[in-house]
Every structure is written in C-alpha cells, then in structure tokens.
C-alpha cells in the first residue's frame, strides 16, 4: 500500500470515530433525571411510614417503608 492511501484511510477512520461519538455528547438536555426526584426533600411519606434513604453512586435515593 502506498503512503497516500494509508493516510487517507487513517483520516477516514478518525472522521468515522468522531461522527459516532458526536451524537452521544449532544444528547444532554440539562433537565434532571428521574432519580433526582427521589431525594429527601422530594419524598413525602404517610404518618405511619418511615423515610429510608440510601446512597447509590452519586444519588441519594429515598423511599417510604411501613
């Protein structure tokens, strides 16, 4: 293979990789995920229930238990 074709193939591969990753970077809309609404300030329990919270990665997930 001569050098010109090899360089052209490398450029095409790089462009293909950039095109594959471009849509993944642009899908962030800025709105909170569903897990952000399970934080202690968003969870309301009935009188006979207790709020139990656990840390899952970056999110503090709360639920009501009887």
How many beta-strand segments? Answer: 2
Quaternary state of the chains: single chain
Mean pLDDT: 80
User: How many angstroms does the end-to-end distance come to?
Assistant: 72 Å
Biggest sheet, open or closed, and with what strands and sense? 2 strands, antiparallel
Into how many domains do the coordinates divide? 1
Strand content: 15-25%
Q: How helix-rich are the residues, as a percent range? A: 25-40%
Please explain how this structure is put together:
The protein is α+β, with helices and mostly antiparallel strands and 66 residues long. The chain is 35% helix and 21% strand. It has one domain (3-65). A two-stranded antiparallel sheet has the order 1-2. The longest helix is centred in the N-terminal third of the chain and has 23 residues, at 3-25.
């Amino acid at each position: 293979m001569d050098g010109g074709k090899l360089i052209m193939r490398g450029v095409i591969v790089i462009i293909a990789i950039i095109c594959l990753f471009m849509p993944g970077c642009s899908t962030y809309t800025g709105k909170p995920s569903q897990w952000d609404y399970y934080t202690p300030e968003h969870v309301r329990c009935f009188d006979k229930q207790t709020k139990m919270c656990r840390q899952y990665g970056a999110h503090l997930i709360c639920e009501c238990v009887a």
